[in-house]
Amino acid sequence: MRNGWKVAAERRSGTFLLVAGAIVLLAVSGAAAQPAGGGEAPRTAWGAPDLGGVWDFRSITPFERPEALGDRQLLTDEDAAAVREEADETWRGIQDGNDAMPTGSYNEAWYDVAGVGEDRRTSLVVDPPDGRVPPFTAGEQRRMAEQARVRRGLGLHELTYGGWVADMGPGHLAVRCIVGFNSGPPMTPSAYNNNMQLFQTEDHVVVLNEMVHSARVIPIDGRPHLDAGIPQQMGDSRGYWDGDTLVVETRNFLRGTGFLGGQTGPHFRLEERFTRVGPETLLYQATVDDPTVWTTPWTFELFMNRNDYPVYEYACHEGNYGIYNILTGQREAEAAIEAAR
Asked: Which one, of 271, 273, 269, 262, lies nearest residue 290 by Cα?
């Protein structure tokens, strides 16, 4: 490992993060740097900033700042080369088989391997200033410890003993094609399908993610949120304009989303900010607030680049043979354990 620090973005819980999402997260600061291109951002026929189009958010900049970098906010040329080298090694490890994916995975043609951000930020997280996610609450630490105890020795998608589909580990919603591991909300760059299409009218916007083709229809006409007793898998989103920035506030989550392997829960509140900072660039900022998980709210941000290609269907289907085979194999393994007693 070059420079003695690991650049792959990791969940500090040590439990679960989708392998693909663990190493390809982008961090940039709008205050620190502006994207290349510049120029006036276009506007709609009714005068609002035009956020419409397909936006690509791939990158391999670390999610959290590596501790060895201390207070440094920018990567050197050598650091940036090390990030790319480690990403390449990780892709090769995934496709050839490793501890998390022992049977291997896709070949390199599938992966959105790109360089680090042009401004060379050392982390996606921008608040706290140290570029690190805040500490977990005592309750979340207990929950994670119990999960680790129950699932000790199990692989990424193996079931807990006697378990059903919800016991496939923290990533079971993604395995079942209910959520995309990078679509959140909030959105975070990962291994592939890092595209989002945004549609807008005068009173609604729609955020369509390529991953598992999930779509959020977001009113921006001032209507109130749904009653708290009507939770939604993707949350209940309402938007408004703050100058030239579209602000989307989401609450009333049913459970965890694809974000960080489903670590958030029903108490999660999210604020997303979308700002067209140039003809080819969209600044995306997300403030994460779940008081049952983290001791304080925190913020990450990234630049999305305009993509001239359409969003194609991502064919992920709940109830596929993978689920059937996982369950069947687990039942046979459990029967063998019982027969040996």
From this structure: 269
